Amino acid sequence: MGVKINIYKTEGEVLNSLANYFVTIANEAIAANGKFTVALSGGNSPKKLYELLSSPAYKEKVQWPKVFFFFGDERNVPQTDPDSNYLMAKKTLFDPLQINEANIFPVNTDLEPELAAGHYTDAISRYFAGKEMKFDLVLLGLGDNAHTASLFPHTPILQDRTVSVKAVFLEEQQVYRISFTAPLINLAHHIAFLVYGQTKAAAVKNILETTKNIDKFPAQLIAPVTGTLDWFLDESAASVLENVSF
């Protein structure tokens, strides 16, 4: 499927547009299958999206008991740690919306990273009952260095062809993360990047308009097998793109 670039004047417009998109995809999935399965991303940008989805303007627009939450990546920290993607989603989304714990699938970071990754792969596989692990929606952010999820430049996971979750060791930071592989992300029915701010402009251009170099620009790996790929950008993040008009 093709890539759709959605560009908005302000950060607020980007967030509102993606919230509306989230609601639409959720309701379509629930109407078709009785449930909606989403993989969340961490970081500051999605935090604002989750706060919006749990706000009075949006919280009544989705049948939340029919939504099942996973994590596209996680930091190798306890679930009570300020850096935990799970804790951020818990504070901004799960607690305000009173999501049932049975609908939330966090990474078990009490385990060693490789074990945690294997355990999470198994948990996803069980959820999909042995069928193809196709999420209805995978939400992604983009780092200044063109990483997405925990697919960082020059890491072995970039060459991983398995549909799974893997541990990633970041040499510079001397820390582990746990991440969906690109093939798992690419199976999704819908993939959405949320990117705003001038600091992301170079990375956006590198992903969308620069010659393919996966090791240097890992988010270039994201290419859905049969699903849709939408970018939600503000004008600052899109400011150095040459092949779009806004």
Detail the topology: elements first, then pairings.
Layout: E1 3-8, H1 11-33, E2 36-40, H2 44-53, E3 67-71, E4 73-75, H3 85-97, H4 113-127, E5 137-140, E6 165-170, E7 175-180, H5 182-186, E8 190-195, H6 201-209, E9 228-234
Parallel strand pairs: 1-9, 2-3, 2-5, 5-8, 8-9
Antiparallel strand pairs: 4-7, 6-7
Main β-sheet, spatial strand arrangement: 1-9-8-5-2-3
How many helical stretches?
Answer: 6
Which value, in Å, is the CA radius of gyration? Answer: 17 Å
Sheet/helix structural class: alpha/beta
Whole-number mean pLDDT:
96
Structural shape: globular
How does CATH name the architecture? 3-Layer(aba) Sandwich
**Uncertain regions spanning at least 5 consecutive residues:** none
**What is the terminal-to-terminal distance?**
22 Å
Q: CATH top level?
A: Alpha Beta
Main sheet properties: 6 strands, parallel
Order of helices and strands: EHEHEEHHEEEHEHE
Number of domains: 1
Percent helix, as a range, is 25-40%
Beta percentage is 15-25%
Q: How many β-strand stretches? A: 9
- The third-level CATH topology is Rossmann fold
